[in-house]
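Quick one: structure tokens for this chain, please?
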Amino acid sequence: MFRGSATVAALLMGCCGPAAAQLTANPAIMSFNGTENTRQDIKIGNTSSRTQYLKISAARILEPGVNPETYFESPDPDEVGLLVAPRRIALQPGEERIVRVILLEDEIETDKAWRVHIQPTIGDIEADSNVAVTLLAFKALVFARPDNPTTEIVGGRDGKTLTLTNVGTSNVVLFNGEQCPGNDEPCHRVTGKRLWPGLEWVTELPADAPVTFELRDTGEDRSIEF
């Protein structure tokens, strides 16, 4: 399981000046490797001095890796393929709570992905007409790999143009990209990407020279050169 963390900021501006109300969510990215282990948790914490009221829901990403993301949402978790519980939480200052995430898919042939929406709501603030509230939602990424995933990246070069295609059944993360042209030129950092199955990534490189990335999939990280 690949873990990250994120902070959600809700800016509360009242008569006495602005104050920041923060939520933490860990992990920000969650993966299910096959359908054997179907339960994981997101830990949500309230680091502010105000009670936070949260609404939590799940939506299937229809085409993972395509921007803008489009979603399928339904009140029936079986139709979405993912269950989150509880759906509403009131977090006291300094409190942490667990949100259970349950995979409901029986068969997965290629990666499926969801967003878990963690949406602060106004709660008891809406009775105070002197407070203006801006609330920022957080969306955790959840994806499930097939029971026997394959990851294969096909690369092509045309000068500085790099084209990569994921012809496997599961996503990979390309990171720590680097180009070292030689001839006393400094090495260049190259931004990476999560590449979903069936998708192509075209990017312009700093130089017409080989580029290396670290590649992360279901096994150990490894280097790959194009």
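The radius of gyration is 21 Å.
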